[in-house]
């Protein structure tokens, strides 16, 4: 009687031991999902089945097969371990080569050789290499070395976005926001910006803040807009600094504070942000949050105007028209207003100059 239960216990214990390598194979398959995993799974399962049969025969008194069990059990455990080692080594080698190929393409872009970059990145992108997908998407979106193709850029951004890449999610959101390669869809844009913002992507925080501030694709919420801008500002995003400065200047989503607005504008202006340069110029012109200084205002307007900012062009034109902070010059005012014809204030000032005959007689 005791011998009978002892044999059953051995049988159950043996099955538990045999389940361990099977579990290892299942984990390997889930990890890599490759054809070789299936082959190894079948092999190891076969070995374990033979081992189970041997164990069963041993329980029936066939002691000669016990040796077979002892030989097959370690082998069935050893096979997946060896497989993992070889598989990891293979994956590591592939990653090293992929990184090298990507780096080669990246170096090519730095010298304007986009044909080489495309050649290096296309195969990587097809294999799911995220950086190659986003790199190619940027090339197609901007038409670097190839005809501009927004649809192909969207396709590539989507592949990378589906893998959780924050840059691709932000870029895809921008494509939806602007209707490039897809039908304009602010809600979808906000969705992708949110996905990237949840990963802490600065540009996504800034873009999502703009959508909350404008109410496009999402409910208008000045408090949330200011919060999103603040998260981007914490990462040094100059556009967000300019936008959050505007929130403080107007008291939207935050307590009105011209001093804080000027501080944020200055941070962005020092980075060459045209919007911030123009906005800070206005504060110097009005003396809000800073000591009034017309020369500094004009200098900031000029920095932004040199970047083609319409508001700065009209503001600088106005200062030349009245001779405030700069030499009075009707001709310069006219020239600047003509450069900013897309601006309603520029049109107004042009009309005013023509009606007064100031700066137009010699032109």
UniProtKB/TrEMBL annotation:
Higher taxonomy: Bacteria, Pseudomonadati, Pseudomonadota, Betaproteobacteria, Burkholderiales
Pfam families for this protein: Sel1 (PF08238)
TM stretches of this protein: 38-57, 64-84
Keyword Membrane: yes
Name used for this protein in its record: Sel1 repeat family protein
UniProt entry tagged with the keyword Kinase: no
Alphabetized SMART domains for the sequence: SEL1
Origin superkingdom: Bacteria
Keyword vocabulary terms for this entry: Membrane, Transmembrane, Transmembrane helix
InterPro entries cross-referenced by the UniProt entry: Sel1-like, Sel1_AlgK, TPR-like_helical_dom_sf
Species of origin: Undibacterium piscinae
């Amino acid at each position: 009687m005791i011998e009978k239960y002892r044999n059953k216990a051995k049988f159950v214990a043996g099955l538990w031991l045999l389940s361990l390598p099977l579990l290892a194979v299942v984990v390997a398959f889930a990890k890599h999902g490759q054809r070789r995993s299936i082959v190894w799974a079948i092999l190891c399962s076969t070995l374990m089945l033979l081992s189970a049969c041997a164990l069963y025969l041993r329980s029936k008194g066939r002691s000669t097969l016990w040796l077979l069990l002892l030989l097959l059990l370690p082998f069935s455990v050893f096979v997946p371990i060896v497989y993992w080692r070889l598989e990891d080594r293979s994956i590591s080698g592939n990653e090293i080569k992929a990184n090298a190929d990507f780096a080669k393409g990246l170096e090519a872009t730095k010298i304007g050789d986009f044909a080489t970059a495309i050649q290096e990145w296309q195969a990587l992108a097809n294999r799911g290499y995220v950086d190659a997908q986003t790199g190619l998407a940027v090339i197609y979106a901007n038409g670097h070395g190839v005809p501009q193709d927004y649809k192909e850029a969207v396709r590539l951004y989507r592949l990378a976005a589906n893998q959780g890449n924050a840059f691709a999610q932000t870029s895809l959101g921008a494509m939806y926001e602007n209707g490039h390669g897809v039908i304009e869809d602010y809600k979808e844009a906000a969705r992708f910006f949110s996905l990237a913002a949840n990963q802490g992507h600065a540009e996504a925080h800034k873009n999502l803040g703009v959508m909350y501030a404008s109410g496009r694709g999402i409910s208008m919420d000045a408090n949330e807009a200011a919060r999103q801008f603040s998260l981007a500002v914490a990462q040094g995003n100059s556009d967000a600094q300019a936008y959050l400065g505007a929130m403080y200047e107007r008291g939207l989503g935050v307590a009105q504070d011209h001093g804080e607005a000027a501080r944020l504008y200055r941070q962005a202006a020092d980075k060459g942000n045209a919007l911030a340069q123009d906005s800070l110029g206005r504060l110097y012109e009005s003396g809000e949050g800073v000591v009034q200084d017309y020369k500094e205002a004009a200098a900031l307007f000029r920095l932004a105007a040199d970047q083609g900012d319409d508001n700065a062009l009209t503001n600088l034109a106005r200062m030349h028209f009245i001779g405030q902070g700069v030499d009075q010059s009707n001709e310069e005012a006219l020239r600047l207003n003509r450069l900013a014809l897309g601006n309603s204030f520029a049109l107004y000032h042009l009309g005013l100059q023509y009606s007064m005959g100031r700066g137009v007689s010699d032109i």
